Automatic annotation (TrEMBL), chains A, B:
<dbReference type="GO" id="GO:0006633">
    <property type="term" value="P:fatty acid biosynthetic process"/>
</dbReference>
<dbReference type="GO" id="GO:0005737">
    <property type="term" value="C:cytoplasm"/>
</dbReference>
<keyword id="KW-0443">Lipid metabolism</keyword>
<protein>
    <recommendedName>
        <fullName>Phosphate acyltransferase</fullName>
        <ecNumber>2.3.1.274</ecNumber>
    </recommendedName>
</protein>
<comment type="pathway">
    <text>Lipid metabolism; phospholipid metabolism.</text>
</comment>
<keyword id="KW-0808">Transferase</keyword>
<comment type="similarity">
    <text>Belongs to the PlsX family.</text>
</comment>
<dbReference type="Pfam" id="PF02504">
    <property type="entry name" value="FA_synthesis"/>
</dbReference>
<dbReference type="GO" id="GO:0008654">
    <property type="term" value="P:phospholipid biosynthetic process"/>
</dbReference>
<keyword id="KW-1208">Phospholipid metabolism</keyword>
<dbReference type="GO" id="GO:0043811">
    <property type="term" value="F:phosphate:acyl-[acyl carrier protein] acyltransferase activity"/>
</dbReference>
<keyword id="KW-0594">Phospholipid biosynthesis</keyword>
<keyword id="KW-0444">Lipid biosynthesis</keyword>
<dbReference type="InterPro" id="IPR003664">
    <property type="entry name" value="FA_synthesis"/>
</dbReference>
<comment type="subunit">
    <text>Homodimer. Probably interacts with PlsY.</text>
</comment>
<dbReference type="InterPro" id="IPR012281">
    <property type="entry name" value="Phospholipid_synth_PlsX-like"/>
</dbReference>
<keyword id="KW-0012">Acyltransferase</keyword>
Length: 337, 337
């Protein structure tokens, strides 16, 4: 039997905790025998939710924790003080090697801080970036960094490009992934100071398939597989992606309800539209891994439903089986030698 | 009779020059008696296009220029060397007071450089920002700066907020416009170094209706009237806005063509969808003004059609009649005293 991948799931994090979190994690273990879920959180809350489902006993465990880190709490303080929170205890299990991965929809700040402080960085990795997959016209692209390291330096972006390439190649299965840097024009002399300094360095890297600048307009087209940028810019891209999509949809829906004719039409197009939207639904792709840690930390969306949690848990299996962290360690060590 | 607003239109700039440019400008003079258009560009090309239409003789003039600045040319060099280009001559007319405004769909770089070097800044304005109106769910917001000043400093962003407020109040007619700063979280302590430094300064400005941080996700909702950000971020926002919209539409169209049922539905919803899309069409709002110059410079989209050019020209009338530059001069001088 294949070795089980042990995934800690933070049952207390996110807008829909614990109900959707527990549901999604149960769906994950029911779909694959090679996953073991370890919930951290208030035992009675988790058990109450678990009662609604059936699942293989040996694939689910609960580690009771009494505290919860709220989204609004200053992250550094929260991580330091709430020793018995679902996040701190869960990351501790990864740190001690008692689990392979940690999935949470809780406070992004606390997860970023905890990942660095509790789980720790792979030797040589300077800044672990948050790297979600975003849907495009032709598939998915990895956006790295989308929120972990504001005001990053060129060397950090190079590491983002490397780690992102490994992820896209090994987890998503894209051969020789194309790496682009977010810029405000196609030419090498365009950009802000950070991009101008990083561009020639990326060009020199023989182990990176660098295709040059990518304008934000081209991102939804799927022009590259790994989109490298500083975290502030990446966060703006990720959130605007979500924001325009949802406003666009609500406006179209409103438009469709404006006349009897369009209402009839709306009924007819519903199945086709649903299919189209599914391919543009980020929750299909699970959460965002924090790359470059001694273990895997996955941040799923604060508003995650069971589907995203399920996909986030399953994502941890490929990450472990494809030995992503070993590959990152090798590649970063090579470069630093 | 009301005084005419004299608008120089660069007949050579943009993907659709000169045909769409001339067409749009003629539509503008035909729609209002208070506009005079002065074309700069190759006389024979402009005359050939003009022959297709009728228009009041005293509202159109041609100033022949022999050179054209291409989009790919390094801007500083182009402005310096091509003295007889449609951009340099056109901006010169504004500088000399022989025209009130200059509209071009040509090289953004050349227009930004030319605006500063040839037309010149209003005394006290440090960096003139490019400020397009972007469509939102509830109307429009002004995005300032969307590409003129990468790596700006906090003091620049304060001026963007002031000039943007004047524009929204006087040209768009929004009373006491709400100003937000683009950030990656709602709390004051979030953000990169620039935002953290700018936030408290904006809060202190009594003449700015500052509502705090705005996340990119909220921008399409129309949560504020003036969106302040550094140019790299603003450019990413503007282009991603365009990019997601167009990919989304092409995917929906493709989805609608996928079955007979959805094809019939598509026919029925077409009018309603068209109306919805119109309200989200940036070209309805003309081009982007470069704020804070001694005269008005408007950059319209490189792919502008006649409609955007017409709207860009008409936009110059409100700008002049509402005495935007006088208001900017007064407000900036007050602050610097």
């Amino acid at each position: 039997m294949q070795e089980q991948v042990r995934v800690v799931v933070d049952a207390m994090g996110g807008d829909n905790a614990p109900a959707e979190i527990v549901k999604g994690a149960v769906e994950a273990v029911n779909s694959r025998p090679d996953i073991k879920v370890i919930f951290t959180g208030r035992k009675e809350d988790i058990e109450r939710e678990l009662q609604k489902y059936t699942w293989p006993r040996d694939q689910v465990e609960i580690v009771h924790t009494s505290e919860v880190i709220e989204t609004a709490e200053p992250p550094v303080n929260a991580i330091r003080k709430k020793k018995d929170s679902s996040i701190v205890v869960g990351m501790g299990l990864v740190k001690k090697g008692e689990a392979d991965a940690f999935v949470s929809s809780g406070s992004t700040g606390a997860i970023l801080v905890g990942g660095q402080v509790l789980v720790g960085r792979i030797k040589g990795v300077e800044r672990p970036p948050l790297a979600p997959l975003i849907p495009t016209k032709t598939g998915v692209s990895l956006l790295v960094d989308c929120g972990a390291n504001v005001d990053a330096r060129p060397g950090h972006l190079l590491q983002f490009a490397r780690m992102g390439s490994i992820y896209m190649e090994s987890v998503v299965g894209v051969k020789n992934p194309r790496v682009g840097i977010v810029n405000i024009g196609a030419e090498e002399e365009k950009g802000n100071a950070l991009v101008k300094e990083t561009f020639p360095l990326l060009k020199e890297c023989k182990d990176i398939n660098f295709i040059g600048s990518v304008e934000a307009r081209e991102i939804p087209q799927g022009v590259c597989d790994v989109i490298v940028c500083e975290a502030f810019v990446g966060n703006v891209i990720l959130k605007l992606y979500e924001g325009t999509g949802s406003v666009f949809m609500s406006m179209i829906k409103k438009g469709l309800m404006s006349s009897l004719r369009s209402k009839v039409g709306a009924l007819l197009i519903k199945p086709a539209l649903k299919q189209t939207l599914k391919s543009f639904d980020a929750s299909e792709y699970g959460g965002a891994p924090l790359l470059g840690l001694n273990g895997l930390v996955v941040k799923s969306h604060g508003s995650s439903t069971a589907k995203e949690i399920k996909n986030s848990v399953i994502q941890c299996v490929s990450f472990k089986q494809e030995r992503i962290n070993e590959k990152i360690r090798e590649r970063i060590t090579e470069q630093n030698d």
